[in-house]
Amino acid sequence: MTRRYFGTDGIRGTANSGAMTAETALKVGLAAGKRFLRGGHRHRVVIGKDTRLSGYMFEPALTAGFVAMGMDAVLVGPMPTPAVAMLTRSLRADLGVMISASHNPFQDNGIKLFGPDGYKLSDEAELEIEALMERDLRAELARPDRLGRAQRLDDAEGRYIEFVKATIPGDRVLDGLKIVVDCANGAAYKVAPKVLYELGAEVVPVGVAPDGFNINRGCGSTHPEFLSEQVAIHGAQIGIALDGDADRLIVVDEKGAVLDGDQLMAVIAASWRRQGKLRSGAIVTTVMSNMGLERHLAGLGLALHRSAVGDRYVVEKMRESGCNLGGEQSGHIILTDHSTTGDGLIAALQILAVLAAEGRPASQLLRVFTPFPQKLHNVRYTGESPLAKAPVKAAIADAEKRLAGRGRLLIRKSGTEPLIRVMAEAEDPGLVEAVVREIAAVVEKAA
Q1: For residue 351, which of 445, 251, 202, 242 has the smallest C-alpha distance?
Q2: In whole angstroms, what separates CA 154 from the centre of its chain?
Q3: Does pLDDT of 1 surpass 70?
Q4: Is the N end or the C end of the chain the one with fewer CB atoms within 10 Å?
Q5: Is 388 exposed, middle or buried (0-12, 13-18, 19+ CB in 10 A)?
């Protein structure tokens, strides 16, 4: 069945146009409410959001749909995506919903759904909800005496802060560390600085003044150059950057160098291996992760399993293989001992704990392998994807021949934006540059 609404990470698009309208949100509330009504108990859905202006439109629309189906809605306001997953389990809710477009600019928004176990829904469950969205559900609505209620959860922030702090032992384990935390003017703007402060760090918070329009704008994990500047200005030992919904993490060392998800997973894998905490002798990453990471892990006697792009697919592979560490180069890091989805704050604490325990500079501790030269170029398109066109297919085939045995090529359509992502990787940087430039040019011409 062709997907009309759901992509690789829920429903996403420009707010108040296309599929991302209040009408769609209402349909999601009705359809997901219908799909997750099970038994005679009082049903409950947890709804969180980030700081985008359009959240004020989508939150009441979703709430109306769930309430109309007889579900109680627990509204937690601006909170990280992993907090919604955690609260869904903690409150024994039937469903969790996060209103966010993650790292996208403010004009976009999205809807992510979590099952009662706190995991993102399967493709099959999303397709079932899509089918229900196309149906006339008026006959399925709750009777007037069975309508749901909506209420704010006043202590949601405190619950999540204590949950995150409990993922590393000790009360003041970050004593002596000066940390710049960039919250991207997003969902973690309150909770992230409090977690670090309560664990003993000297905290310099930036990106903590959301106005509905500035989420991810020139800050956060997609703009680490801002964090690098702030680390230098404040003389901090390390900087951590989250994205708009705080499910991804990028780190900057004391010299301003950026460390992506591959480097961070390598650090956590080695630390957990020493502590006997790493399960299955492996980690899970996506096809985007650098070959240098794979070579580094092999040197430690650890395997690397690859999944499709998207943290949902990483989690599926982790559950299949029994791994408890996985993630994406972009900074989604999933630690299933603690969370069911990517959690930038929890991942950051694992890195900070290593830094605090070792007492050495981040620049010495956190860059543990040399990446293969890798280049990613995004090509925007309109209408149908150009990947099926003959000139594009021919250019890809030619590049694969040139890279055979020397590197790899990955061409894919983004699941969240109208982009074709062209990525090549090899030990020869000139070859990488040429391959990406040539394919991108052909894709742009065909787009």
Answers
A1: 251
A2: 25
A3: no
A4: N
A5: exposed
Query: Does residue 143 sit in the same domain as residue 169?
Result: no
Tokens of 124: 């099959």
CATH for 147: 3.40.120.10
Give a yes or no: residue 1 inside a domain.
Answer: no
Interatomic CA distance for residues 109 and 55, integer angstroms:
8
Same domain? For 19 and 56 the reply is yes
Written as one letter, the residue type at 424 is A
Determine the structural domain holding residue 302 and report its residue range.
159-365
Q: How many domains does the chain have?
A: 3
Q: Give me the residues paired with residue 307 across strands.
A: 286
Distance CA 347, CA 293 (A): 18
Tokens of 256: 């301003």
Is residue 6 a part of any domain in this protein? no
| Res. 415: pLDDT tops 80 | no
- Higher per-residue pLDDT: 311 or 158: 158
| Per-residue pLDDT tens digits for 246-274 | 999 999 999 999 999 999 999 999 999 99
Residues of the chain with pLDDT > 90: what percent?
91
Strand residue runs (E) in 95-248 = 95-99, 108-114, 150-152, 178-182, 202-206, 238-242
